[in-house]
Design a protein that fits this description.
The protein is α/β, with parallel strands linked by helices. It is built from ten helices and eleven strands. The strands form three sheets. Strands 1, 2, 3, 10 and 11 form a five-stranded parallel beta sheet that branches. A four-stranded mixed beta sheet has the order 4-5-7-6, with no helix packed on it. Strands 8-9 form a two-stranded antiparallel sheet. A hairpin with a 5-residue loop joins strand 6 (169-170) and strand 7 (176-177).
């Protein structure tokens, strides 16, 4: 039986060769050398969401949208929210302000032209807005976004703003920032928002953490993952660093069944509906 609180289900639409964990061995100019799997995996998710009558926010990489326009149109047609994940999956911390502006604008313009609809949400690759590039929020506001979900208040080697707000809040730049959820225990914050942690934790523990968050914080919960995380048949990049391989491949064969349980146990909606965010 589903919990009655509406929570946000989100999907970062990118392929296995886009991820930050492999950026040291796969450069953007090499993406063409890999057979994409994002189309079929995302369509599996659409079928699963339809089975449970769930709407989600899909943060779409512009690179994917250019190559699979019919997929993006189908996501939109089924009533899901389309948001931007930038164009080239380059971390915001690795870009200048102008590069960031150009990357996000390219994605937003393409998606809006493709769908004939205004985008209001953005998520930075690897939650890469933080202490040293708060100007990114100014850029997002300038480009007309109403909300972002680009921060994770934890300590991590690739991202993290542990002393920033843990819940949705209005930024001074004029947009709402929706951080990835954390579980606070003994003064430390543990990641509970999805991704690799969802694959790593036993499902019973994830369910406990989500229920604990909802009961203690009285805030909606948001969950994120990627289409490649339900794909146990994807190529194994054996030349990747051991740490990256562990993060990427652990429990891929269990993700789909765990996700199905998550859909059954909790109620889900889009970011804009859960947080009541409208276009500017």
């Amino acid at each position: 039986m589903r919990d009655t609180v509406l929570n946000a289900m989100t999907v970062d639409v990118e392929d296995f060769f886009h991820v930050s964990a492999f950026e040291s061995i796969i450069k953007p100019e090499q993406w063409k050398d890999y057979q994409p799997r994002v189309d079929v995996n995302t369509r599996r998710l659409l079928d699963l969401f339809a089975q449970y009558n769930i709407k989600s926010t899909f943060f779409v990489l512009g690179w994917v949208a250019e190559r699979y326009p019919e997929l993006i149109k189908e996501i939109h047609k089924q009533g899901h929210e389309i948001a931007s994940h930038g164009y080239a999956h380059r971390r915001a911390t690795e870009q200048t302000r102008q590069e960031f502006y150009d990357d996000v604008l390219r994605s937003k313009t393409h998606l809006e032209d493709l769908l004939g609809d205004k985008l209001i949400g953005y998520r930075a690759p690897s939650f890469s807005i933080g202490y040293n590039n708060e100007w990114a929020f100014e850029v997002l506001a300038e480009l007309g976004f109403a909300y972002s979900s680009s921060t994770y208040p934890v300590k991590h080697d690739l991202y993290g703003t542990p002393d920033w707000p843990r819940f949705a809040y209005q930024r001074k730049e004029g947009i709402v920032e929706i951080p990835i959820p954390t579980h606070r225990f003994l003064g430390r914050q543990t990641p509970i928002g999805g991704g690799g942690y969802f694959r790593l934790y036993p499902y019973a523990f994830t369910k406990y953490l989500v229920n604990s968050y909802l009961e203690k914080e009285k805030q909606p919960y948001s969950f994120y993952f990627h289409p490649w995380e339900i794909d146990a048949e994807q190529p194994r990049l054996t030349h990747a660093p051991l740490k990256s391989r562990f993060r990427h491949y652990i429990n891929l064969d269990k993700t789909y069944s765990k996700l199905e349980k998550l859909l059954q146990d909790f109620s889900w909606g889009t970011m804009k509906d859960v947080y009541n965010i409208a276009a500017k």
